[in-house]
């Protein structure tokens, strides 16, 4: 029952080239930066990533992207990373863009054992009809395009079928966690973290504060430990190291 690991290297043990990862966070909020750094240190390459976005230049998943470690990204937003755009348009990176709510539900469905579901989001667009450029060729033509998806009518409204997502690993960050893997997320960090954690076959959580079993109010737990296999306690310095994408001040 004790899922605590001593080091970040131990937390990502067993990762391999070509593995798939669901990664929590929204922008740089709630991003498992320590685990991403540990994943970088393994030298793993050719990985597939499912995340709301792929970090920013020099931070979050952007670190792995800049090193050429990521081969495929499933995301809903890519606008804060110039290197991402360069690799995508240059044919170096395969990208599946998914409506944000659909991405969240695909992760949740995968974690619940639901293989597919129907949603009205994307009906009548290239999301359902296919043709979105997943990968470009070096000459700028489309090398791989998204396929057409099944559309079915329910109560007079058309819905498109979307597949649930399961990944080999999931990396998430929580404010508090106990040794059994029960997790609590803080405010905006409770974004894609619980959903990413559900989708991973091996889920690793870095926690800012480790507590003993029984200390967390059962009604306050956001993600039960059944979804978590490894827990990495952060040092106070690591827990306090939180980057901000765009700092604004009021005059």
TrEMBL record:
Gene3D superfamilies noted in UniProt: Glutaconate Coenzyme A-transferase
Matches recorded under SUPFAM superfamilies: NagB/RpiA/CoA transferase-like
PROSITE patterns reported in the protein's UniProt record: COA_TRANSF_1
Xref: InterPro entries: 3-oxoacid_CoA-transf_A, CoA_trans_fam_I, CoA_transf_BS, NagB/RpiA_transferase-like
Keywords tagged on the record: Transferase
Superkingdom to which the source organism belongs: Bacteria
Stored SMART domains: CoA_trans
Annotated family: Belongs to the 3-oxoacid CoA-transferase subunit A family.
Alphabetized PANTHER family for the sequence: ACETATE COA-TRANSFERASE SUBUNIT ALPHA (PTHR13707:SF60), KETOACID-COENZYME A TRANSFERASE (PTHR13707)
Name the record gives this protein: 3-oxoacid CoA-transferase subunit A
